[in-house]
Amino acid sequence: MTISTAPLPRRRAVAVKVGGVTVGGDAPVVVQSMTNTDTADIDATVRQVADLARAGSELVRITVDRDESAAAVPKIRERLDRLGLDVPLIGDFHYIGHKLLADHPACAEALAKYRINPGNVGFKAKRDLQFGAIIETAIRNDRPVRIGVNWGSLDQELLTHLMDENQAAGFPQTAAEVMREAIVRSALLSAERAEEIGLPRSKIILSAKVSAVQELIAVYAELARRSDHALHLGLTEAGMGTKGIVASSAAMGILLQQGIGDTVRVSLTPEPGGDRTREVQVAQELLQVMGFRAFLPVVAACPGCGRTTSTVFQELARKIQDQIRDEMPVWRTRYPGVEALKVAVMGCIVNGPGESKHADIGISLPGTGETPSAPVYIDGEKAVTLRGPAIAEDFRALVLDYIEKRFGTAGGRDAAE
Known about the structure:
The chain is of the alpha/beta class. The protein has 14 helices and 17 strands. Its cofactor is [4Fe-4S] cluster.
């Protein structure tokens, strides 16, 4: 009997170019993030976009909610270009996007994509007119559009219409089922209207965000079944800390395993004064642990038990993990392929040697009462045994030496210098 570890075949979506990044088609799943600065504050927004891009965000969305923020967008783009950061910027528009794009053509040109919400792009008689105005601006500027439905701002007319239909039919569906249908239909009808106006399918990305895990899975499964549009995944209002991480990973992990999703964002609520790049790290780690992408070397570390009363292995694992993340912007150029590296830092003899042999380079530190020596395994073979007070620093030096020997190339070094 063969046990498969592969995900379901990737749903083949229409490819969409967002600046220099491809979403859908044969492209890998793309990591996206969003700033939480006032876009009109050019300095703060440039700093945060730069931080997100350097952390690995391949697309960055910014809020464009008023004239001052729209006027700032081309200046932000110019500043980023001067820094050598070509990360595509996505404009997030609500309520008056049609007016801001019309009044600030430089903003429309500086953005690589527009994100609009069909639930608040316009109301009643103005909805079609204002939606059409944004789509026409996208066509003139040759820009893609993400039609992003959110259950917190769902088109109430559509929802009411579907509820009335359900009532007239004798309530064959629950209220939750009608809500899900309204979300899916809002996205599909809006995409259909955009194509009627003239925006090609290769310029349309859809999303349908909710904040409940099972609801998100159900909505995207249905959206994927009924369309071939590129899909942006995200659990909206995921929450703070471990709750947000677990909820987002559970929902998107299941969808990705089913072959659904072309770009992802982990919408974490940051701690007060917290680092916005955390959402990028979580998205990368989700894609990497599932085997879809490789962003940085993996450090496998022992969780600890009564055999590992020393904190040496914990401190060493943290130092190596931190060093890898800090150095990756340089290592990507200097050491092509280094993101595939696997390092093991284990705490005792029980699983230490075995885990270390499975890694490219690993160390088995002495547990409580064990002989104060630490064998190091390289490419599955025992290479050296470290002893003394400098075991941690000696192993870090061995890791760096391994990276240089395996991944260092004359071309990579020259490009970095």
